[in-house]
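batch_manifest entry 22 of 60
target: Putative transcriptional regulator
source organism: Acinetobacter baylyi
requested by: lab member K.T.
priority: normal
notes from requester: please return tokens only, no post-processing; we will run our own comparison against the previous entry in this batch. if the run fails, retry once and flag.
--- input ---
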Amino acid sequence: MPFFIQIATYLFCGVTMSVKIIVGYLRLLQRVRQHYHLEHLSQQKAWADYWLQFSQALDQELEQGFDLHVYTQLLKQVQSTLSRPVSLVLAEHATLQDVGLIGYLASTSLNLQQALSLLEQYYPLIFKQTNLEQLKIVEQQDLIQISWGALYEDYREMYELNQALIFKIAQAIIQQHLIPPVFIQLGHVPNFSISYYAQFYGCDVTIREGQYCIGFSKQILRARSFAADQHLNQMLSSQAKQSLQHADTFEHRQQQFKQKVMGLIEQGLRHQNEVIQHYVAKQLHASERTLQRQLKQYQLNFQDILDEFRLQQSQLYLKQGRALTEIAELLGYADQSAFGRAFKRWTGRTPKNYRADLHQD
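--- output ---
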């Protein structure tokens, strides 16, 4: 199945959807790429521009981070050469330094409990501009549960990678055989057999659409870190707090809210059992009027966000060769004609012409 391999930027709401990740993820991918001798992937014409961006960002150690969409597309290309989930392969080659400040905070923590607490507090720093989902850590009787939402199915590999990295961070901190997690929960159906994940984590793996989760027994929380240094940890925590405050801008909150709405639109279109705006408002525990007021505060418009999502998805579906009737249904249109009119309004071309141009290219 072909992937979405061309970037296009469309300004519907005055802002673009741009999520950045820290450069450590690039170093990790490059390590795996070299280990498996995959340098030839950049020679494939359709992917050459993506790898060029990747190489330039890696060389320059970009402070502003690297585009998450480009990174996920590279993961999918690398996946096409591997016989196991790319997320697990990368995690096997990961170091604490790959997750940046979070890794240093974790390694200097007194124990795993403190490390996880800091992870919850500063998890947004893994994403340089906009955090995708809020990570939550909840303690229950004999269990500690780490979970986060998974609104964007296209970021499945990234969700899986972060889950595997949390597991590897815990292993690296205590420098001993980590008692296997009590359970692992995937938020999207993986492209591989569950057995790969069960073998990696050493425990049962389940699927619950929309939420990733990892559960540890509380008995490992007091396991002392091999490199505990409270003075250094406090200095790093202060640095992390300043970084979070610096990132807390109107643009940051605007994009964060826009992404949340877009993710709920994706969910709502999958269900298609009620009006999409009503569905989104309900998931946000708000009325439609309240939702409109919240959008206005961020200089956003619901119809513009819906159009942007539909345009992005329709281009992806057309590249995948899906039938126009199927695309119309997936995007919540009454029929193929309604979808065709909308697509031409956005791009100036009919879906058939757009697909013909793809084949010509």
